[in-house]
Design goal:
Blueprint lengths: L9 H12 L4 E11 L6 E9 L2 E6 L7 E6 L4 E4 L1 E6 L8 H8 L4 E6 L2 H7 L1 H10 L6 E6 L18 H8 L4 E7 L2 H5 L3 H13 L2 E4 L6 H9 L4 E2 L5 H9 L3 E5 L6 H11 L6 E4 L5 H6 L3 H10 L4 H8 L1 H7 L15 E4 L7 E6 L2 E5 L2 E2 L33 E8 L5 E10 L2 E2 L5 E7 L10 E6 L7 E4 L8 E5 L2 H14 L2 E6 L2 E7 L11 H18 L11 H4 L9 E3 L2 E3 L11 E4 L2
Parallel strand pairs: 1-4, 1-5, 6-7, 7-8, 8-9, 9-10, 11-12, 12-13, 18-22
Antiparallel strand pairs: 1-2, 2-3, 5-14, 14-15, 15-16, 16-17, 18-19, 18-29, 19-20, 21-22, 21-24, 23-24, 23-25, 25-26, 27-28
Helix pairs in contact: 3-4, 5-7, 12-13
Length: 591
């Protein structure tokens, strides 16, 4: 059965048509709401009659009252259920059931999940686990097949290595809706056989092929689109948005880069209409943000606050998304469509009072009426395969007395640099003003030995931070101003089976255990959010952040080797523009 085909059951249609005619009562009637029409942008009074999972009638308010159950919605705004077009459950560091419990009461009824974090740790079994874990949730999850495991082949090692045959196997599964963000941009542009095979598997399936086109422009952007990729969420500015819209991409405008949203809203308002190919997504939402602010509802709320008309924001999050997904049953409150409906108290705060999913009221006043079923998490344990470390493991050995070393300059938009420094007792003295970064392979496919490099323009670190949430191979990654604190944090994380730790002057300041895949906890969202917030506060004691690029979030993407420029990985310093990984930062021994 194709997604959405359940609405085509003849008996359901018979009942719904009869209810629409008035010959049969509705199962559920929403009375007195102000409907925000996702097509016309109108706000009008209407009652909504529901039969099973289907909307049977949208009609004049007060015209009918024959229904098995009634929801009084006077003073509330009715919209379609929100659709998050690109996200990773793992980024919220909780299980899928806990994630659903957080977002459904806020009006999110559908998410498009790329489980490539689980895939990079567990391979195909990680994706299969994710499919099973969402089967009985009140949240509709459209799962995508991770396209880049690892994200940068030959430049890093993760827990698996997906071939085109693996992608074809995943795409044949009924629960898989397409290929997730294609991150190996250079491989796509160069028509690398591996990436071409993966894209061909997607094209042959007839399913979505989603992209990650950060920094691409001109001929490279054209080549990326021509390869068969249809979407992007990696915007860098308003001009980037316009170029990608003109190139035909569906834009998944993400809330995780808030600093870009005001200028993007301004450009869209100047354009004078909302492009039908603009949708919304969260991408990554940390647990404290999810707990305190929400998911896609928070993105909608912020866009309206920055000046986007509410009807545009709702249309982007509903109807436009359904068009991209080729799901005509979703994204619209209209007869014959799926009864995914949210009743909001107003169109600025977007606080959901009632959430209806598949024709059933699943949430009231911000609480699920029935908690989602949990799923066995035991297959996700024991994923950190590394031994305890000492301070010298984080030092770079070298001969001579003076050396020239490579540095990784600037957070996020990295570039190569060089520095001269001395050697003492056989180890390099870190260049002045640099921050140490070490990546330790933890998947059992290579020795778990730290590979250390030097970051510049990362501030002055007064301690260390270790994390196994490190996109996208999720190896053990440690940042620090001294090797002793780096060893302290790394050993805590390794012993915990994954997670995060902050230390300064030989003392652990904050810790967060993520024993499931080194990415997720099975604790409550409130508990995980509290511990993660403590990590954030502890980090403020270790380094002075300089927004928008030198921010806490930069620590989680510093090893994303598929992006342009040098990045530290478990193999050394990698760059997609260079064929060889620099195993050690030593370039020359000068004396």
């Amino acid at each position: 059965m194709k997604p959405g085909d359940d609405l085509n059951d003849c008996r359901l249609r018979d009942r719904a048509v009869a209810a629409a005619r008035g010959d049969e009562a509705f199962d559920l009637l929403v009375k007195g709401a102000t409907l925000l029409d996702a097509v016309t942008g109108e706000q009008r009074k209407a009652d909504i009659g529901i039969t099973g999972p289907m909307i049977a009638s949208v009609h004049e308010s007060g015209k009918r009252d024959d229904a098995g159950a009634v929801i009084e919605a006077e003073g509330l705004f009715a919209t379609p259920g929100l659709i998050d077009m690109h996200m990773h459950v793992e980024s919220s560091m909780v299980t899928p059931a806990t994630y659903a419990q957080a977002v459904v009461p806020r009006g999110v009824t559908t998410v498009v999940w790329d489980p490539h974090e689980f895939a990079n740790v567990h391979g195909l079994e990680g994706v299969r686990w994710a499919l099973e874990a969402v089967r009985d949730l009140p949240l509709r999850v459209i799962m995508l097949a991770p396209s880049c495991v690892p994200a940068a082949p030959g430049l890093e090692l993760s827990g698996a290595d997906f071939s085109s045959d693996d992608l074809a196997e995943l795409l044949a599964m009924p629960g898989i809706g397409g290929i997730a963000e294609v991150m190996n941009m250079q491989g796509v542009i160069d028509r690398d056989p591996r990436m071409s095979g993966i894209l061909q598997a997607g094209l042959a399936s007839g399913k979505l092929i989603c992209g990650h086109a950060r920094g691409l422009t001109g001929a490279d952007l054209n080549a990326f689109a021509t390869a068969g990729i249809g979407s992007d969420h990696e915007l860098t500015c308003a001009d980037d948005l316009m170029e990608k819209l003109r190139a035909g991409f569906t834009i998944e405008l993400r809330g995780s880069h808030d600093h870009l949203l005001p200028e993007i809203v301004e450009r869209l308002n100047k354009l004078g209409h909302l492009p039908s190919t603009l949708t919304l997504c969260t991408d990554d939402v940390f647990p404290d943000d999810l707990h305190n602010a929400g998911g896609l509802d928070d993105v909608v709320r912020r866009l309206v606050r920055y000046g986007m008309p509410p009807e545009w924001a709702v249309r982007a999050a509903t109807l436009n998304a359904s068009h991209r997904l080729q799901r005509p049953d979703l994204g619209l409150v209209a007869p014959g469509r799926r009864a995914d409906i949210v009743l909001f108290s107003d169109l600025s705060a977007f606080e959901a009072e009632v959430v209806i999913a598949d024709g059933t009221c699943v949430s009231r006043a911000g609480k699920l009426l029935s908690p989602p079923a949990s799923h066995d998490v035991s297959p996700l344990r024991g994923s950190v395969k590394a031994a305890p470390l000492v301070a010298d493991d984080f030092r770079v050995a070298s001969g001579g007395n003076k050396v020239r070393v490579a540095t990784i300059d600037r957070p996020r938009f990295t570039r190569w640099g060089e520095a001269e420094t001395s050697v003492e007792n056989g180890f390099i003295v870190p260049p002045e003003g640099s921050t140490l970064v070490s990546v330790i392979h933890r998947h059992g496919k290579a020795p778990p030995k730290p590979r250390t490099g030097y970051l510049r323009e990362w501030g002055e670190w007064r301690g260390a931070f270790c994390t196994t949430v490190s996109h996208d191979s999720h190896n053990v990654t440690v940042f620090g101003g001294n090797e002793e604190d780096m060893a302290l944090t790394a050993n805590w994380v390794i012993d915990a089976g994954g997670g995060m730790a902050v230390a300064s002057r030989g003392e652990l300041l904050a810790t967060l255990a993520l024993p499931l895949s080194g990415l997720v906890s099975d604790a409550s969202l409130a508990e995980v959010a509290g511990e993660f917030q403590a990590i954030r506060k502890a980090m403020e004691k270790v380094v002075d952040w300089q927004p928008p690029y030198l921010v806490f979030k930069a620590c989680f993407g510093a090893t994303l080797a598929c992006n342009a420029g040098p990045h530290q990985t478990d193999m050394g310093i990698a760059d997609t523009a260079r064929p060889q990984v620099l195993e050690t930062p030593v370039l020359d021994i000068l004396e």
